[in-house]
Design brief:
Strand content: 5-15%
Strand order of the largest sheet: 2-3-1-4-5
Oligomer: single chain
Number of helices: 8
Largest sheet: 5 strands, parallel
Number of domains: 1
CATH superfamily: P-loop containing nucleotide triphosphate hydrolases
Helix content: 40-55%
Radius of gyration: 16 Å
Structural class: alpha/beta
CATH class: Alpha Beta
Order of helices and strands: EHEHHEHHEHHEH
């Protein structure tokens, strides 16, 4: 994706279950708005104002679909993302807005490669690049917490989500995957999510100021 085509900013929040992404995204949105920025919030799988991607989300999250094989799961995520990027994310970025997404391709690498063990990482990155047209976030915030603590936060809610209800071993692999990715990317920032809400927000804002020109 050519940088001269991008006018706004694309910020992504990644992390395992129960890391508090929703709370921190809302706080960041409010802070940006106080500074006069136009902000658009979206999520994956699915996407705000993206009906097709949201239908795919329903399939992916439905705990009744225990028969879903990892390969089908991967390509459903990528199909949702391809629609999401072209219909929603890129138009808002090109209008000069700050787009904040709850998850993007980092989750695919962490869940489907590290968690499920699909293919090698470079192969997954290659097919993801095809789905996104090469779009990369300007900054990815990884909210990191031990999976036992994170799963404990969401409690019974995990029973209604096919991915949340995976084994603790799976969630440990996902965390390892996220941290491995963060070690290799200068555009990722790791934030300790096992802290109070205000301290986490302040840490996120320091990374925003340091890494982005806003």
């Amino acid at each position: 994706m050519m940088e001269d085509q991008i006018m706004g900013q694309f910020i992504v929040f990644e992390g395992g279950e129960g890391t508090g992404k929703t709370t921190q995204i809302q706080r960041l949105e409010n802070r940006f708005k106080k500074h006069g920025h136009n902000v658009f919030l979206t999520r994956e799988p699915g996407g705000t104002e993206c009906v097709l991607a949201e239908k795919i989300r329903t399939l992916l999250k439905d705990p009744a679909h225990t028969e879903m094989v990892p390969e089908a799961e991967l390509f459903l995520f990528l199909a949702s993302r391809a629609q999401h990027v072209r219909q929603v994310i890129l138009p808002h970025i090109k209008r000069g807005e700050i787009v904040i997404s709850d998850r993007f391709h980092g989750s695919t690498f962490a869940y489907q490669h590290f968690g499920r063990g699909l293919f090698n990482l470079e192969e997954v990155k290659k097919i993801n690049q095809f789905a996104t047209g090469g779009l990369e976030p300007h900054l990815t915030i990884l909210l990191d917490i031990d999976p036992h603590a994170g799963i404990g936060r969401i409690g019974d809610r995990r029973d209604g989500d096919r991915l949340d209800s995976e084994s603790m071993g799976f969630h440990q692999k996902v965390r390892t995957g996220f941290l491995t990715l963060a070690e290799t990317r200068a555009d990722w920032a790791v934030v300790n999510a096992d802290n109070n809400i205000e301290a986490i927000h302040d840490d996120i804002w320091r990374h925003i100021v340091h890494k982005l020109e806003l």
